[in-house]
Amino acid sequence: MFSIYVLGILLAVVMARVFRSVLFPGEAEPFVMELSPYRVPTVQSVLMHMWERSVLYLKKAGTIILAVSILVWFLVNYPNDVAYSKDYQSLMTQTEAAFSQQVEEEVTKPLNIGAVEDNPDLQFLIADLTTVNEEFEKQTEGLAADSQELTALTAAKDNKLHELEAANPELFPLATRYLELKGGVDDQIDTLKKEEAGEKLAKSYAGQLGKFIEPVIKPLGFDWRTGIGLISAFTAKEVLVSTMGTIYNVGDADEGSVALQQALSSDDGFRPLTAYALMVFVLIYALV
Question: How far is the C-alpha of 29 from the C-alpha of 33, rounded, in Å?
Fold first, then answer.
């Protein structure tokens, strides 16, 4: 990362030399700038400066950035009539139907009820287990596998689960099984949605453009997927990460997304040198 900062400084110096010697040669014009004495800024001067900078930004955002953003949005979201390789809606419907059948056979039928909602105690227990699991995931996010804090939180979670099991010995296995089935169906549907979004993006105008420019960016180690990310990030570089998350079927992603990191590391065509080249390219390729 430090080398990228240094590279940015060196490029600025080199380009300044190129502009001076090649693009705008000739005698240097004398330049004298007189610095006014430093004073504590007044409220009026601060407000005027804020107004001037705000107007300049709004003019830029309302013209160049807005126009390019609309164009990129259109390229990423159209055409609508994409010919998918799978019937994703039908697969999601089948997954939900299979989940309902499993819940009926393994959870509701042993209790002689038609739905989970028909048994308030079971419904409350499922809600309590869900809360315990969600709190545990939130508290342990980012902790190392061998950390003492993780060990303590795991023990606390187990104690809560034992308490719930002791209070509801008959319903606890059924509630646990319901959550297992619910987690499985949610993962399957989430995977299908990500695959659908990734395929739609690949077949969009941006995807077609990414494949069109792939021969040009191939020497840099980039493929068409990276090309799509570069196209979508033309107006805002931070959009590159979220776009790559969509392309690699991991959903919403940011700079700390573990799922995207794993997806990129498992891609044989995305090596550490490729990642470095991508960061350098993003540093210099757009000045909007």
Answer: 13
